[in-house]
Design goal:
It is built from 9 helices and 8 strands. The chain is α/β, with parallel strands linked by helices. The structure holds thiamine diphosphate and magnesium ion.
């Protein structure tokens, strides 16, 4: 992370818990870059996370108010904080398992109510912190510690899910698209209503090594190869699209 962003890190923090090649550290820096570019007042912000590797992104690293809550319940805490103090800019940063597996019901109902919350879901498509179990976002066929022969079920498309539920801003970017991602984070910081960004974040330790992508650069290259825009996707056959991930702003 560049020195200019160090002021946003809580004094005394020297390391992060992230493995080499984990995308969560990249995301941690990009959120701070968006905050810095907008000169947001950290005293008017609250960062809420649940439990998981991704939940460590704001807490304890960010030098502001953070709530590190219960697994799956980040949105419930965020809702309470926002209702109690509507002036707060409340940003939820948590994992795919936390927000959409155990926390899936909170996610759809927060979107349905169009609560003024900024939600960033770090999607590594697995339960990283607890040993690489299958999640609601794990692609069909993927090997995990609980699906040795490949996940038999299709994953949630989180963007379509929250859009259908009532979110008013929905986007998906990968940590390999930092410029577009920072732009999207700035947009949600400046708007009102339920805003959701799904951020694809590689996990070499739990996802990669079971799926022949064990070196950090393999997963990064794989993400760069697979991410396409909606326009690029339009000209592709179903077969070509099967392994692609469509990124961009889906509702703005
Ligand atoms: C009620 C409850 N159930 C299960 C757990 C165990 N647990 C902690 S984190 C986690 C999964 C986190 O996955 P995700 O949100 O995707 O974060 P990642 O580690 O992948 O970044 C699980 C199952 C828990 N802490 N509490
Ligand atoms: Mg995860």
């Amino acid at each position: 992370m560049v020195r200019a962003l160090e002021k946003y890190i809580r004094p005394g923090i020297k390391t992060t818990p992230f493995c080499p090649g984990c995308g969560h550290g990249i995301l941690m820096g990009l959120i701070l870059r968006a905050i810095d570019e907008l000169q947001m007042d950290m005293k008017k912000m609250l960062f809420v996370s649940g439990i998981g590797c991704a939940a460590w992104i704001p807490s304890p690293h960010y030098n502001g108010d953070t709530l590190h809550t219960l697994h799956g319940r980040a949105l419930a805490f965020a809702t309470g904080a926002k209702l109690f103090n509507p002036e707060l800019c409340v940003m939820v940063i948590s994992g795919d398992g936390d927000l959409s597996s155990i926390g899936g019901n909170h996610l759809i109902h927060a979107a349905r109510r169009n609560l003024d919350l900024k939600v960033i879901c770090a999607n590594n498509m697995i339960y990283g912190m607890t040993g690489g179990q299958v999640a609601s976002t794990t692609p069909k066929g993927t090997k995990t510690s609980t699906t040795d022969e490949g996940n038999p079920y299709p994953p949630f498309d989180l963007c379509r899910l929250v859009k259908a539920a009532g979110a008013t801003y929905v986007a998906r970017y990968s940590v390999t698209q930092p410029v577009a991602l920072v732009r999207a984070i700035k947009r949600i910081l400046l708007r009102e209503g339920f805003s959701f960004i799904e951020v694809l974040s590689p996990c070499p330790t739990q996802y990669g090594r079971r799926n022949r992508l064990d070196r950090p650069e393999d997963l990064i290259r794989d993400l760069i190869r697979r991410c396409v825009t909606e326009e690029e996707a339009e000209g592709m056959t179903d077969e070509e699209l099967a392994e692609k991930i469509i990124t961009g702003e889906f509702l703005a």
